[in-house]
Amino acid sequence: MLRYLLRRTAAAALMLVLLSMVTFALLRAAPGDPIAAYVSPTIPMSARAIAALRHRLGLDLPLAEQYLLWAWHALNGNLGRSIGHGEIPVAMLIADRIGPTVLLMGTGILLSTGFGVVLGIVAAVWRGGTLDALLAGLGALALASPAFLTGLLALFLFAARWHLLPAGGLITPGGGGWADVAWHLVLPASVLAAAQIAMPLRYMRAAMIESLGTQYVRTARAKGLSPARVVLLHALRNALLPVVTLTGATIGTAIGGAVFVESVFDWPGMGSLLVSAVSARDYPLVMGIALVVGAFVLAANLVTDLVYAAVDPRIRIA
């Protein structure tokens, strides 16, 4: 198990380095001069002043040296200073926004996985019927609906038209407390969960159908066990293994959905921060967010692999 852990950790570290290299290269290959983000269009600067600023920022170095310099600072905990937020350290900006994003993503993934597992069991037990067809249609609709479109529709119905839930933000102005945060979380987390629910539903349905057809399940039925006992205590245990792997894989897609959901509902997380950073061509902030998000996704997948290996010994033996 230790050797498996070391191998997976080394692979995750290598993937994080490759991700940072690709992101850095893509930002530098984007149209326009990076120095333009540091120069105000309303304040004229001489060519000598611009050259001095370029030298101070290291933008006159070869691309490989620029990346190595950034990587060295990142290893020491220095992600640079934001261009569009008054030279505030990037690490400080990310630290302020990471909590709301983790809260939103965690709640959305918990809801989508929980409801997806339950609905997948229902669809498998009553497969071929009207309920199975209805759930399959709802899953396909959720899979085909973009998160921003679902978010706008939910915002119009539940906030603007029916006034049932807050329109956005993390807390009510002048309010606060966990109850207020939870009330504001309902709508964006539900939208994020709706965008993610199709995959666990489909995986759970397929795994349960396979599990219900195994010999040990037929034996349990022959012994006279109740249908609920057969499904929940015998078939469900092995059917959950694919869902464990899927949960780790959905974190990456949940981050992509969170970008749109946070923008629609004005949620003060890393997704909305990334959108503003890209719009302002805030290169240090974009690199910092990409590094943190990449590390988070890789860590989540590593934990998922370890849980799967602990549940199924064949994985770590292979």
Protein architecture, described:
This protein has 318 residues and is mainly α. The protein is built from 13 helices and no strands. It has one domain (90-317): MetI-like fold. The protein has helices at 2-29, 47-56, 63-75, 90-125, 130-144, 147-161, 178-196, 198-212, 215-222, 227-264, 270-279, 283-311, 313-317.
What's the CATH H-level superfamily name? Answer: MetI-like
Classify the fold: give the CATH topology.
Answer: MetI-like fold
Helices and strands: which structural class?
mainly alpha
| Integer count of domains | 1
The count of DSSP E runs of length 2 or more, i.e. the number of strands, is 0
Flag low-confidence runs.
none
The biggest sheet, with number of strands, parallel, antiparallel or mixed sense and barrel status, is:
none
| Corresponding CATH architecture | Orthogonal Bundle
Question: What value does the Rg take, in angstroms?
Answer: 24 Å
Q: Count the helices. How many?
A: 13
What's the level 1 CATH class?
A: Mainly Alpha
Strand content: under 5%
SSE succession: HHHHHHHHHHHHH
Present the secondary structure layout.
Blueprint: H1 2-29, H2 47-56, H3 63-75, H4 90-125, H5 130-144, H6 147-161, H7 178-196, H8 198-212, H9 215-222, H10 227-264, H11 270-279, H12 283-311, H13 313-317
Give the gist of this structure:
The chain contains 13 helices and no strands.
